[in-house]
């Protein structure tokens, strides 16, 4: 073994040693307590945001009609089916009238009979009148004769009594005639009522619309008020949206909305807030609003899920930070600011936020400050940090 | 004075280096195993840290929400919020399930394989306890529905659509070290969605359930229109959560808040220490002991192998030692040479092992926590084992007959 080979070996061994020490120090500096926490930062800058509200809802009809009978009964026929278009006043179903037709016929006969009774009463009246006229003539003649003392006073009185009796008979006959006429009127009114009832068993469409459900088939019995058919007005479709109470500030009628239907996720539809309900749901802690479509799309189905984004007017200028920068520490909301290479927790007040994650910061941070956004782990005042561009994940 | 050990190492350097690397890999495996054990315990602790709670309020007589199932009404949080000493309280749900990537076209691209990830879906209220404390990318959830923050371990990327039960969620943020006690990465979604995901059945089950209700004559009475619809609507919604996370006001003892909850609200409160006890001592006890047992055996075996290698290495040099003795080298010099060689081997082994463990630890599917304390303990153990093994070798070397140099 010569000296130079030993020298080479020594060099190789020393090199190997240096390599090991280097690897070891790399390991110590890159992992464990001495390693810096990698963070990403952003420079606080002023700007405006357009706060948005987000909620989900279902498509509903503003006007929907339940068509059913007003009395219990059996369905005789249903002439339209689900999906059919109906016009105002169009007969859509009919209930079984049971004995209504027969009762109408009976009343028809009764009305006819009342007419006959009226004719009889009229004849009686004429008869009474004729008798009265005769009695009046006789009475006049007897009174005249009595005055000339041709006949006795008793005979004159008898004729006068005859006349009074005939007057009374006429009055009775006239009253009979009025009664018969009233009777007929009653029967005619009863018949008209029955006809209305007969018409009522025919169910008519109250408005132009589309049949959405057919709940009873001919032969089935329904109670008063139960729906046989449901009809909606397609032009009145809107979205009933539920917004988290905590994120519903600024919700008013007329806000522009974007509606994404589950069936066409790529095509947002424009709309507007048509109504904000005064009652909010206390159980789910949500507010309810109705969003009308600017133009109701064709083929919209009631009950379809929709995502609604409402845009509020832009805010005034303020410092904006990503919401990932906002941290909580000992019941304080704040951000980590890099101040001359050292970390400092700056408490902040936050204002409005936009859906893309920008938050207004009202005080605590000045424009130009460097603020930590993402971090590998929880950071504290003492830890070392290393600023990098991105920590993980492909940026979209 | 020349270093005998150095000269000897230079003489058979390849053997020495290769032995060192072999030893190192063995030590690396032992360190990794310790890391696996620490990682398991740390997973359990991470779960508690991430929830950011001082107090967990769960169903009475359960040890939920992690160790047992627990379910309580979501308005119970309001009465907890009213208790003195409570700073913040929020509902939370946990559900371990398979989360799928949702492909826009409906079909997965070729070669993507079975693309679901086992994850713990956490339903939380944004801005409340239970929210991920820090993100590594993206933003926190801003919409009240259909957005998700996922742990990087799920492999999901920002902007990706994932499917949980009936709905697609957009990944808007990524976080790190947010895992369940079993090490499954977490996916955070808004509470209302999570309630639905947890309790709402699939479409077929819902349709079947409706038909079952409609077939029940006492629930579907002909004379009572609207009754069936009302019953079906009440069946389809869910107002349950798994736990309430409570943060107490600073300076208040969690136990002070826990007492009235236990006594008057008829719910079960757990403080941080109790929860840790449940998780570490009960939930992961068996698997942690399993790994711990293996770690002990591995450590003993490693120690034995290190000792034998040192011992046999010395035995291999017995003739050279005899020559040294023959030329009158002092015993101390010989013993020093053997000890130095053994310690050198141990140090090289330790460094190689530590480096190797650090480099392969991130590849493990579950978290491997290499604690500096463990490394220091490992170093001390390696040095002691080497010293011990070398004393055995030194005894043999010193007893060798100088005549063996010329004899054998």
UniProtKB/TrEMBL annotation, chain A:
Belongs to the membrane fusion protein (MFP) (TC 8.A.1) family. Keywords: Coiled coil. Residues 111-140 form a coiled coil. This is Efflux RND transporter periplasmic adaptor subunit.
